[in-house]
From TrEMBL:
InterPro entries: Epimerase_deHydtase, NAD(P)-bd_dom_sf. The lineage of its organism: Bacteria, Bacillati, Actinomycetota, Actinomycetes, Streptosporangiales. Gene3D superfamilies: NAD(P)-binding Rossmann-like Domain (3.40.50.720). Residues 5-199 form the NAD-dependent epimerase/dehydratase domain. It comes from Nonomuraea aridisoli. It comes from the Bacteria. This is NAD-dependent epimerase. It holds the Pfam family Epimerase.
């Protein structure tokens, strides 16, 4: 069973279905990919009794769901408590999709054994989801992804760069343009979720999704070259820019917490994932072609 219907959830469902697994996808809209082995159900995952009912008979519950970005501190505890209760009641294995916010600022590569030391509200919300699940006694693992890219990705790159580059327009970006940054492809993240679910030694700890590391300027340049678009024009959004944008949408206020420190690369160490789970990173150009 998969809770969520976004790009990673959909790719995970198709990977499982193509292996002959029966998949039930749960989301408020009842969306998801069409496949004979994928059943799509409209339900609210915070309705714990309904969620438990839908989970009965499953082997594994995957969750890729998240509340609206600006509502994480308020709504993540409700969602995660409902999911964890359903897992306890049904006795299924639990595979969570997380991200890297919980670590907070890190000097050097981000490894999965580092403490979850974030102090900001979104980082702490993410950290608590894992800490509570890990302490609950259920069979659980978490796959933590870097910034998403690829077909269907919802991220800074997809929102602020992709379309602007393809249309030859100026892209205003909320990250440093020439500092190395790790990106996780949607497909690689889904493959890691599936691999972790099937490996007994994966449970009880977290894993990092494979990632490719390059600057946003480099990534935008490769996208433009593959698409035959003009050379990208990029500018970095300042803190003042974000403060002004907060007046238009609460989303912008949330970016202050997750901006990397000036001049500090944001690099993910996913070597254990490749060594133990056998999942590696798809070449960047292949991921960008899929986006196109």
């Amino acid at each position: 069973m998969i809770v969520g219907r976004g790009a990673t959830a959909s790719k995970t469902a198709l990977l499982l279905a193509e292996d002959g697994e029966r998949v039930r996808m749960i989301s408020r809209s009842g969306g998801g990919p069409e496949h004979p082995l994928v059943e799509r159900v409209a339900a609210d995952a915070t309705d714990t009794d309904r969620l438990t009912e839908l989970t009965e008979g499953a082997d594994t519950l995957f969750t890729t769901a998240a509340p609206p970005y600006h509502a994480w501190p308020r709504e993540f505890p409700v969602l995660s408590a409902s999911l964890l209760t359903a897992v306890r009641r049904s006795g299924v294995a639990y595979v969570m999709l997380g991200n890297l916010y919980g670590y907070g600022p890190v000097d050097g590569p981000i490894r999965p054994d580092l403490p979850l030391a974030a102090t900001g509200p979104k980082g702490r919300a993410r950290a608590r989801v894992w800490e509570e699940a890990a302490a609950s006694g259920v069979k659980v693992t978490e796959v933590r992804a870097a910034q998403f890219y690829g077909a269907g990705a919802y991220s800074v790159f997809s929102l602020m760069v992709r379309r602007q580059v393809l249309e030859g327009r100026l892209a205003l970006v909320s990250q440093e343009l020439d500092v190395p940054h790790s990106y996780s492809a949607i497909g690689d993240t889904a493959r890691t979720l599936v691999a972790a679910s099937r490996d007994e030694q994966a449970y009880g700890r977290a894993w990092h999704a494979p990632a490719s590391t390059l600057s946003v300027r480099e990534l935008a340049g490769r996208l433009a070259e593959l698409a035959g678009a003009p050379r990208p024009r990029l500018e970095e959004l300042t803190g003042r820019d974000l403060t002004l944008l907060e007046l238009t949408d609460p989303f912008w206020a949330e970016l202050h917490e997750v901006l990397t420190r000036p001049g500090h690369p944001f690099v993910v160490d996913w070597s254990e994932t490749e060594k133990v789970l056998g999942v590696t990173a798809t070449p960047v150009d292949d991921v960008l072609r899929e986006m196109l």
